[in-house]
Amino acid sequence: MQNPKDYISQNKERFLNELIALLKIPSVSADPAFSQDVLDASEAIKSSLLAAGCDIAEIHETAGYPIVYGEKIIDENLPTILVYGHYDVQPADPIELWDSPPYQPVIKKTELHPEGAIFARGSCDDKGQMYMHVKALEYMVKSNQLPCNVKFMIEGEEEVGSDNLGIYVANNKEKLDNDIILISDTGMIANDVPSITTGLRGLSYVEVEVTGPNRDLHSGLYGGAVANPINILTKMIASLHDENNHITVAGFYDKVEELSQEERAEMAKAPFSLEDYQDALAIESVYGEKGYTTNERNSIRPTLDVNGIWGGYIGEGAKTVIASQAFAKISMRLVPNQDWEEITELFTKHFESIAPKGVTVKVTPHHGGQGYVTPIDTIGYRAASKAYETTFGKKPIPQRSGGSIPIVALFEKELESKTILMGFGLDSDAIHSPNEHFGVWNYLKGIETIPYFYQYFTEMKR
Fold first, then answer.
1. How distant is the alpha carbon of residue 289 from its chain centre?
2. pTM to 2 decimals?
3. Which helix (H) or strand (E) holds 44?
4. Which residues of 339-376 are buried (b: 16+ CB within 10 A; e: fewer)?
5. Are 423 and 188 in contact (CB under 8 A)?
6. Secondary structure of the chain: what % helix, strand, coil (to 5)?
7. CA distances from 94 to 27, 430, 434 (A)
8. Helix (H) or strand (E) holding 207
9. Tell me: the pLDDT tens digits for 49-105?
10. Environment class of residue 141 by beta-carbon count within 10 Å: exposed (0-12), middle (13-18) or buried (19+)?
C-alpha cells in the first residue's frame, strides 16, 4: 500500500472542516428536543459515505433513531470488514463548565495536543473516531487501493443503550455478513504508546426510588418520627460497599473472572504514573477496592457507582421539608462472565431486602450489556497490531478497558464475528464531560493507520 501520509497532508484542512461541520449538529439522542438534529446527523453521514466512495448508502428506520448503512463491495470472494460507529452524542450539560460552546467546534493547542485538539461534544466519542473510517475509505477508493469489501453500520442510539440495534442486526444478518467488525470508540494509552483494547466491561444501569409518607412533610412537625426517604436512601447506598470497597450485593462476585498473576504482571507493564494520574484529576489520593492497583480497578474489576441522586428541595434558600420520595441512578460495570441481567436481578433483590420498614423501594432497570474479551492470537488482532506498528513504529500494548460497548457481545452472538477495537483517543479527552476534545494528530493518525488494517487483514485472511 502506498503511504497515505501525502493524501492526508493534501486534504488535511478539508478533513478537519468536514468533521467540524458534523460536530456542529447537536445530535443528542437522550433529549427529544434534539430529535431533528439527530436525524440531520444521519443524513450527513449518509452523504459522507457516498462521497467517500460507497456504492450504497441508506437510511434504515428503526423504532427509535435510524441506522445508516453503507457498503463498497469490490469482489464477493474477498474478505468483508464491517465498520460500526455512532453519530449520537451525550448531552453537553453542564454547559457553564465548557470553555467554548459545545456545538461550536474550536481547535486549540494543549500540552498533550501541541498540534491542536478539536473541542466539541462528540469530537472523540464518537463522531471524530467514526469519521476516521469514512476518510480512510475515501483514501483507499481514490487511490484504488481498497483491498477488500467494506460495510458501514452507524447508529444513532449508542448513548441511550442501543435499544433498537439488536432488532436491526437480527433482521439483517445477511446484509451485515462479514469476516471481522472494526470499531473505533475506545482509546489508547498515549500518543507515543499505542494500544489495542482487548477487553470491555459489561454494564447494568438502574434507577432506584425510595418512597416514604404520602406527601412532603414539615421537618419540624414530623422530623424524627417519620422515615426520611433521603436519609434512608443515602444509608442504603452507603451499605452497598464494605470497608474494603467490596460490593456487598449477595452473589455479585460469583462469576467474576480472576486473572492470573502472570496476566496481571503483563498488564502492569503498561506505562502509568500514579502521580500524573492524581494531578490530572486534582485529587490527593486514589480510592477503590482493596488489593488491586488503579489500572486493575478500572478495567478487570467490577464496580458500582451512583451516577445521580436527588430528592427534596434544592432551590435557592431554605425549605424545611421531609421529601416524600428520593431517587438515584446507579451503574454497575461488569467483567466477562458476569451476566448483566442476572446482576440486575441480584441488585434488585438486595436493594429491596435492605429497605427498612416505613419506606417502599422500587428498582427500575434501564439498560445493560455483556462484557467482552478479544483474544490476541486472532488474525484480526495481529492485523491491527501490525497496522499500528507500521504507522507508530512500535507494537501496541493489549489493554483492557473499563468502559462498556454492549453491542460488541451482541455482534458476536448474532453475526458470529469477532470485533477489533482500534481506538485513537486519550483518557484525557474528557468524553462525556465538559470540554470534550480530540487531537488533530490523533484524528489524522487514525486515517493513516486504518487502511493498513485493511491491507494486513486481507493478506492474512487469504
1. 23
2. 0.82
3. helix 35-52
4. bbeebbebbbebbeeebeeebebebeeebbbbbbebee
5. yes
6. 35, 25, 40
7. 16, 13, 7
8. strand 202-211
9. 999 999 999 999 999 999 999 999 999 999 999 999 999 999 999 999 999 999 999
10. middle
